Amino acid sequence: MTKVLPQGKLKDFLKDTMDKYSLVAPVREDGVVVLKPTADPEAVVTDYLNTVTSPKDFFFPQTERMFRFQKTEGKIRVEETTWQGKRVIFGVRPCDLGSLELIDRVFQEGEYEETYYLARRENTTVVGLACSSPGPTCFCTTFGITPGSPEGADLMLYPDGEGFVVEVLTEKGEALAQQTETLLEDQDVDLAEVKGRFEGLKVPLGDHLSVDGVAAKLDGMFEHPVWAELSPRCLGCGICTYLCPTCHCFGMTDEVRGDQGVRLRCWDSCQFSDFTRMAGGHNPRPTKKERVRQRFMHKLNYYVHRFGRYLCTGCGRCLEKCPVGLTMVHVIEKVNDSGTREVAVNE
Amino acid sequence: MKEKLSELKETVARLLKDRTVDFFIAYQAGHSQVEPIPFFLTTAEHVENLFLNNFCAHNLSKYLLDYLAGDEVVGVLAKGCDLRALKRLLTDHRVERGRVFVVGLPCIGIYDRKKVQEVYPAGLVEVVEEGEEVILRGETGDKRVPRKEYLLPRCLTCPDHNPEFYDLLLGEKVANGPLAEEDYSDVRALEEWAPGERRRYWTRQFERCLRCYACRNVCPACNCRVCCFDVAEPRWLGKGTSLDEQEMFHFTRAMHVAGRCTGCGECERVCPVNIPLMKLNKKLAKDIGALFHVPQAEIPTEVEPLGQFRLGDPDEFN
């Protein structure tokens, strides 16, 4: 037997969820679907290709207040801020589920664990939503993700007929299933068959785009003319990096008023002109060329060397939103097509 | 518009070959029919990849700011709206006329990609114009729609179907005249709301803002050498995001381009989260028009309504 959430009970599912968790879910607002905290199950939608903003916002927020400090009588008192609560993020697509696993490694592996991020991860239950109809900007399959991949979810929903077939993947998912158990029906559905159907869905763009060998090729392309060719049209805005579910660069800043202040950790974008500008004014990435190169080298080469995977899940947000088409797909195609002269020189 | 492509190719190839320009900025094909993207051509061979259709929205003249330091002559393709943007840069003394070679492009309107994609989420093959109607030809069939409803907002009130000036015009001039009067109806509608309602509306918009600065970066009136938002010391705007900071950003941006906004609407077009920035810009244009008796607040002039002072000014600034 497999658990199924009937379509008509979705709102109740969200309502029961909210008895124990705060809810973050896709909401349509002024023509865009954004992921945001909501207390209104009626406002939650499921008819979106993907949300404009990604779930990373709720683990690695754009602005993290790390601690407050106050100077009193020559001493500085530091008051750490910790995130508390139990949260459910509803409706996360497979590409975005995959992105969480990629960011996890940055904040979890190595010498230091990033406690702010991990506190949110531990206390958040992620409800995935498989994709019934991948769109023209989707290319998850390029990176080994499918419209039915549940990796990264605690509880996965597969739209099927008049409801959602439920797959519980973790203890957190199990807890949520228990919280909402009166709404989940046991039905004679073959979960493996349903999953197989989603995994086999065509993703036209992704099925034809290969990233094989791109990282190795880029080893020799740091000085390749492709960057000077691609970068002039970049606007230098932060759309790509801020909407990207895997970008995770940040800067630290103290906001001080009088004798007290707060230390913030804020998103930064490698596409901004002041990214990595030093205190003395030197900027190692002075023009768009170096900044555009940084974005794609980070995703297609540096991260691969460090963690063995590409830092992209084919969500297609850069295709949908970059005003000048400086997209992951365009760059991968460029790299695939470019001459290997530099590779030969370096080898 | 695409019927002018072969003439554009010939023209650009010639300009590059005879070194009239050092490079040329036009359009190339993007991910789909509805998303042409900017294209920087450095040799005549590049013209084979030129692209032109009625989705070529980007104002290319803003890129001229990237080449201030050199001495290249930059060729740029400009529609009427783009020319107004160029005029903005020239009026603000940011770009030298002698370093720009303008190829003017007569234009009867650019389609709004978002509106067209609502009808054809995928597989738009071409757009065929038939008088007041347009046929959106997709893989799944045709759809005949009123042309006006699918144009970018700026195109409806556009007074410049032909660029005001150019070094060379592509094809023949087209009949001029806006499709609709600029009556600021969307601004008037907002003005009639109760203050609390308006407050909620704008709060929702600004809370959605990502501070990606795409609106600033495409804006031809945002042409400062160093933007105050990029200065670390003093920090005019906090790095942290909050409703306060977002409002600070948007009001500063809007007030800074007040009286200089050319009404191109590029800010609103590129905003990834649909913030209706033109409502702010138009409110200011409307008020400036009324307060300073400027008939066309969005047309750059040497004597700016907010960029001058008079000894006999009745306002004592106290």
Detailed description of the structure:
The complex is a heterodimer of chains A (347) and B (318). By secondary structure, chain A is α+β, with helices and mostly antiparallel strands. Chain A is 33% helix and 22% strand. Chain A is built from 13 helices and 12 strands. The longest helix of chain A has 20 residues, at 288-307. Chain A starts with a strand and ends with a helix. Chain B has 318 residues and is an alpha/beta fold. Chain B is built from 10 helices and 8 strands. In chain B, the strands form 2 sheets. In chain B, strands 2-1-3-4-8 form a 5-stranded mixed sheet. Chain B has a 3-stranded antiparallel sheet with strand order 5-6-7, with helices on one face. In chain B, strand 5 and strand 6 form a beta hairpin. The N and C termini of chain B lie far apart (53 Å). The interface between A and B is large, with 43 and 41 residues.
The SSE order of chain B reads HEEEHEHEEEHEHHHHHH
Class computed from helices, strands and strand pairing of chain B: alpha/beta
User: Helix tally of chain B?
Assistant: 10
Number of helices, where a helix is a run of at least 4 consecutive DSSP H or I residues of chain A: 13
Approximately what portion of the residues of chain B adopt beta-strand conformation?
5-15%
Low-confidence stretches of chain B: none
pLDDT < 50 stretches of chain A: 341-347
Widest sheet: strand ordering of chain B: 2-1-3-4-8
Largest sheet of chain B: 5 strands, mixed
Please bin the fraction of helical residues of chain B.
Answer: 25-40%
**Which percent range describes the beta-strand content of chain A?**
15-25%
Number of strands of chain B: 8
Oligomer: heterodimer
Envelope shape of chain B: globular
Write the H/E string of chain A, N to C.
EHEEEEEHHEEEHEHHHHHEEHHHH
